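Budget justification note: compute hours in this period were largely spent on complex prediction jobs such as the one shown. Inputs:
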Amino acid sequence: MPDTVALRHPRAEALARLLGLVAFALAVFAAVLLVFGKDPLRAYLDVLAATLGSAYGLSETIVKMIPLVLTALAVAIPGRIWLINVGGEGQLFIGALAATGAALHLAFLPGWLLPVVMAAAGVLGGGLWAAASGVLHARGWVSETISTLLLNYVAVLLVNFAVFGPWRDPEGVNYPQTAELVPAAILPALGTTRVHLGLVFALAALVLWALVMRRTRWGLEVRAIGGNAEAARRAGIPIGRYVVALMFLGGGMAGLAGMAEVSAIQGRLRPSLSPGYGYSGFLIAWMARGHPVGIVAAAFGLAVITAGGDILQMTQALPGSVVNILMAVMLFVVLGREGARR
Amino acid sequence: MAALVRSLLSGAVLSGAPLLYATLSELISQRAGIVNLGLEGVMLVGAVSGFVAASHTGSAVVAVVVAALAGGVFNLLFAYLVLARRANQLATGLALMFGGVGLSALIGVRYVGSQIAGLPELRVPILAGIPVLGPALFAHDALVYAVVPLAVLIWWVLRSTRWGLTVRAVGENPVAAFAAGRDPHVLQYQALFVAGLLGGLAGAHLSLGVARTWSEWMTAGRGFIAVALVIFARWHPLRAVGGALLFGGAISLQLSMQARGVPISPFLLDMLPYLLSLAVLAVGRGRHRHAAPGSLGRVFQGTP
Amino acid sequence: MSRSLVAILSTLALIAVAATGETADPKLKVGVVHLGSVNDGGYNQAHADGIAVMKKNLPEVEVIQVENVAEGADAERVMENMIRQGARLIFAASFGYLEPALRVAQKYPEVKFVHPGGYKRLPNLTTYWASTPEAFYLMGMAAGKTTKTNKIGYVVALPISFFLANVNAFELGARAVNPRVETRVVFTGTFLDRGKEATAANALLDQGVDVLGVIVDSPITVVQAAEKRSAYAVGFHSLAAQKFAPKGWITGVAFTWGNLYTRFARQVLDGTFKSENILGSLKDDFLTLAPFGPAVPAEAVSLVNTRKDEFAAGKAHPFQGPLRDNTGVERVKAGETFPLTDLAKMNWLVEGVIGQPR
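Corresponding output:
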């Protein structure tokens, strides 16, 4: 996704316009709250206070942001050559499955090695899951859009199959979850917060991706395909191979997110692994048009909204999922503008 | 054996009916050239609106009408964004899903655990008396009986009426349709409104007919199964009937088998709809060119 | 786009810091985390009703409740946010919240936690539950005397051992009064899919079942499905389910947590909280057998009441050997019983139950 559009406008004007859009979205949501007899200003202040108003709130927002950045990358990387990966959710689940498999079967590895092996398993699992869609697409059989979407459900069901069946915790009252992972399998966290090493993975992946795109021959060829696939094909660039490779890389990022959630947040594999991180990642990548800084910013914004949801229940007696309305309105506004400018 | 057949059939019908409404909704949408991943949200808005209406008026008819209209109006929001604002279909659809989840939760928060009369069971005279088949097929609510004729109607409308043919033409190639002097947007708005009505009915059947309760996210992914079903049916309304029965039957089979003590993993069985749809696409390539609407080529066919 | 977003967010952050204000302190703030909705007529409503009773008994207690909290990463944040709002007693009201509660409890030793059904404790975390097999046995007796087809169906969310134990006890109770009863159990695999529960209930009814039981969060769908097709229903979790089956209601077992919750809150107010593992039974006031419906024969009522007294006196046991599982393996020897404190290990279904325990 080219990221040059925003630069065509003078910066101040772009900022003002964006502010206007955000203000519009906030006003729409405020109107919805007013209709239901709630105080929108209080709701906004509560969300902000709970997420950005304290070190703890900020740390939890970052925790929420980590999988969002990685799943957004899972969309942005193949998106560079116009592949549409709607399968971040499934790739995240398969990454978690593979990482859990490594943790359960290689629990004897030392503490510095086990997380590395789990991360590799997560990347490989998510990557291969996405690469399968890449192959289907490169062969001209099924588009990656629809195969990644359909495979999401297969992936979630596979995880369910594992935790209800062969991997069920033998000690755990038949509850559908694996045994607790050994301490060596847990990613280190920052102080008493839940901010974990996955943050470094996510940011490093973003930077590496940007560097590879700008500085390497490989990146140049990717950009060539993204610019004009037909011309690239005539220039002898093997497009099919790039399709599979970029799908693998993208899926690998979602798989890494799954590994980090299992290792750092959940401590075991269970069916309620993700509240739709893969789909949110898709929206973030789309809003940010694949731009690394934009991904971080949009992921942070979305993390504020979702992490702030439960506060509204405590202070405003609103169902926690109403923040989904705010998220949707924001997206509508941004997507509507981006579309109209095309 | 008779009990199993009855259980399987009536379960397939009961699970299949809301799926079929949802599938027909997605089918019309895609025939008009637009993929709607937000169907889940449309269904939820329909489900909760219908439930609220039923709880206040006590009238099943009013509830169903309200649900359909709510779905239609909510889908117009999607239509406005993808048509007038030219927003990306897939991203807008996902955003619509999130919005529908939140909006329905907000509307429905006071109605969780409320009691409603729901859709009355209408036994078809004589037919309901047939052994085994009668109670399985002819002892349901009105929305169940309506859905198959509706599928036939949609098939006929798309195949034989001027409006249907134009919608399909727009879905095949909006530019050509425009060149032929038709405003594709007007038709697409109409098609998406109709799709929204059907999505609302799908939700209404869940909350008023099947479960008779409202709970958050009660569609539990059925909107996405419908996307798979449209592909499985290769964009044909009559095949969608078979597909919905088959998918509904798979759910019913799994539950019935459990009730008889047959060991079968529900999770592996639940994968079938998705894998079958993939297989249909992969195998069907070349032969029918998928029968996919032309302007969806980028979305559904393996050709860049 | 991105740079400007950063600018906006940092401005908002400043406003947020300014907005963090404190409100006047009540004597005790209590936080309650629910897996589902508090009006579900079932599991969550039972907890919420208990909290309401506590609030009535102790008006000086302030309550913060959060519904629909998934058992994954979010539960921990919700609990911690409650503590940041001033909560000093946390009800982590779902089995899957045990580990999040343990982690937060370790971080905040001065805050007290109570968890239903947990198998691990901390000095500031009490676990409590009521052993339900006796009650299910009694429900089974009532249902066994009421059924006409001798087929009973159970719609169960997950095959976890406590649920299997309940279904087993139910079948044993039913067999005690009617040896021909068989119980068919169907697992939906989720607590949340009402449509699937309805299909499961109807699948069971289509196979000739005329009594439906249910172990999911909200019994409303299944109980209504039974009533709609003129079958009988037994309830679980909350007394609120009865109104959905005025004709077909047999009985139900409900958690009536009010007094226990009042006790917890009072302990925290008095500073007498100590970590306990509470396992109650029908003798305690937090497990209640619901009133019998009109369809239950009078003979059944007296049989149930006699056995209830025998349970209370320790003269009878729901899992009295010899017991075989439904594959023919002997699980409890003649003259022995399966201890009610070991239910976590019950991973089999008793003879007479049709279904798979996994």
